[in-house]
């Protein structure tokens, strides 16, 4: 044992000195004498690195003197002319000065001139990077670190994406952003421009709780605003059930312009499948905020044909007539009605489902008109005989996917057992068609009478809301069932990105790739 201890002492004396400058050496584990040794080692390292840098500078200068090419005045002018020629060629390729390609090149050249410390990025580049980083943070970092292009850092984007707090319900900061967005679109310049509609629908989410490290909250419980939460907790206490439930759906309310391109996600609520009783106060509170605070006039609301939405319409019934309710009085303006609209694309799909089951598929219907049958097989024969192999097709947009329906193509409709119901469309579809036709007609007449030159009727459907749900499902890749936390953060991002949020290629709405206008309005930033 004594021999071993003596051997170890000799080895320690002959071993090289400890490198105290290494990052693994912590100060709390080092004595005062070793700290002094560390300072001396750092001084030696700095001296050695300075000497190495000077040596490399001398070598670079020598290489330039030996192999470098010195341009005279004429060659310098020719090189500048060549650079300007390339710039002119690029401008010819993209003649529109407001094109995003021109803007991108100008920003890259500006970065090379000012550097990262003096660079002030254009708001359009900020919006594009916010949208890109929300899709995939790794993709944004990879592009930025590749060296091919220059982009704003993640720290810069963080200040823009966190200008407002990501939360559920109605928020004053979001109301202020909506007012600024409407002002930017010129909605307060003319009377007819400030008419808007409310779109609302639910998206299925994953039942999960997420810890928010900024607030210390567990995100994922049902949250229906303050008053509705108290009513919900009271009902659960009376029924001896658990006071809190994990949400299964997210109710999103969006503000849609009629004569403008306003598409603004206004508020979100975590639900366990919304009912008409809870939807009623949420809807009218949204109307009150828009009418009083934002100074926008709500003319219509659009939703799908879910049972809770149909019951919500019927809550505004004023008499005992059997006709479906399609409007109600606006309490903020006695001279203006508020119209209910059942989403027309959803109605067309339910009507298609009824037709597909007429003498075909489930065979639950036998549609007829004027003593003649209306069968799904008529469309099948039309496609197979005149469209599938005929170059000059009478129905060029009719494809095999429209004929061979899958389970994903269907929207669930209530089956009817009586013979009278079997020869017509479903009652829900017929009521929805009546409501939509009457409401859209009245809205168009009203806005045209207020000074508008024309109305695009697709502004009355809920495609922008379906597009917003598509962004939530494509966040960070394929995410068909996002959490409450994901949907909440996506709403905050879409408010900042605006029109640069491109709609997904895949989805249940038509894809319209419009030219993105250059918007130089400064984005609000967290201080």
Automatic annotation (TrEMBL):
Keywords: Coiled coil, Nucleotidyltransferase, Transferase. Its EC number is 2.7.7.-. Pfam families: TNP-like_RNaseH_C, TNP-like_RNaseH_N. It comes from the Eukaryota. InterPro entries: TNP-like_RNaseH_C, TNP-like_RNaseH_N. It is an enzyme of class 2 (transferase). Residues 168-315 form the Transposable element P transposase-like RNase H domain. Residues 458-484 form the Transposable element P transposase-like RNase H C-terminal domain. Residues 32-66 form a coiled coil. One of its GO terms (molecular function) is nucleotidyltransferase activity. The keyword Transferase applies. This is THAP9.
């Amino acid at each position: 044992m004594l021999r071993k201890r003596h051997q170890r002492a000799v080895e320690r004396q002959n071993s090289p000195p400890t490198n105290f400058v290494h990052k693994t050496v912590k100060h709390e584990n080092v004595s005062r004498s070793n700290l002094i040794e560390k300072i001396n080692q750092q001084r030696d390292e700095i001296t050695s690195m300075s000497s190495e840098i000077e040596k490399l500078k001398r070598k670079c200068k020598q290489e330039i003197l030996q192999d470098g090419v010195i341009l005279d005045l004429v060659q310098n002018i020719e090189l500048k002319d060549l650079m300007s020629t390339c710039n002119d060629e690029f401008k010819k390729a993209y003649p529109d000065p407001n094109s995003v390609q021109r803007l991108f090149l100008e920003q890259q050249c500006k970065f090379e001139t000012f550097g990262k410390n003096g660079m002030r990025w254009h708001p359009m580049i900020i919006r594009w990077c916010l949208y890109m980083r929300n899709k995939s943070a790794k993709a944004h970092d990879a592009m930025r670190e590749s060296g091919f292009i220059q982009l704003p850092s993640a720290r810069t984007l963080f200040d823009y994406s966190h200008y407002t707090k990501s939360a559920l319900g109605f928020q004053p900061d979001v109301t202020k952003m909506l007012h600024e967005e409407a002002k930017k679109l010129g909605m307060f310049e003319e009377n007819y421009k400030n008419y808007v509609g409310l779109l609302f629908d639910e998206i299925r989410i994953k039942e999960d709780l997420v810890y928010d490290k900024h607030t210390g909250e567990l995100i994922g419980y049902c949250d229906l605003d303050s008053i509705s939460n108290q009513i919900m907790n009271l009902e659960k206490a009376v029924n001896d059930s658990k006071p809190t439930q994990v949400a299964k759906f997210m109710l999103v309310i969006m503000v849609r312009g009629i004569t403008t391109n306003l598409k603004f996600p206004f508020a979100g609520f975590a639900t366990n499948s919304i009912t008409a009783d809870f939807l009623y106060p949420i809807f009218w509170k949204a109307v009150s905020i828009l009418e009083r605070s934002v100074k926008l006039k709500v003319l219509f609301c659009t939703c799908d044909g879910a049972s809770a939405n149909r019951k919500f319409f019927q809550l505004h019934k004023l008499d005992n007539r059997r006709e479906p309710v399609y409007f109600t009085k606006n309490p903020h303006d006695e001279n203006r009605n508020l119209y209910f609209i059942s989403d027309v694309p959803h109605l067309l799909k339910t009507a298609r489902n009824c037709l597909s089951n007429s003498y075909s598929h489930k065979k639950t219907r036998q549609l007829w008109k004027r003593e003649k049958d209306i069968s799904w097989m008529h469309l099948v024969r039309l496609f197979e005989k005149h469209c599938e192999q005929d170059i000059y097709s009478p129905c060029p947009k009719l494809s095999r996917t429209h004929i061979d329906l899958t389970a994903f193509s269907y929207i669930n409709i209530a089956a009817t057992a009586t013979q009278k119901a079997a020869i017509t469309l479903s009652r829900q579809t017929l009521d929805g068609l009546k409501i939509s036709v009457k409401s859209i007609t009245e809205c168009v007449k009203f806005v045209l009478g207020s000074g508008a030159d024309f109305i695009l009727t697709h502004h009355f459907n809920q495609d922008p809301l379906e597009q917003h749900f598509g962004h939530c499902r494509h966040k960070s890749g394929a995410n068909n069932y996002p959490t409450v936390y994901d949907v909440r953060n996506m709403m905050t991002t879409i408010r900042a990105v605006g029109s640069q949020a491109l709609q997904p290629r895949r989805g249940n709405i038509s894809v319209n790739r419009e030219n993105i206008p250059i918007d130089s309005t400064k984005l609000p930033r967290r201080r």
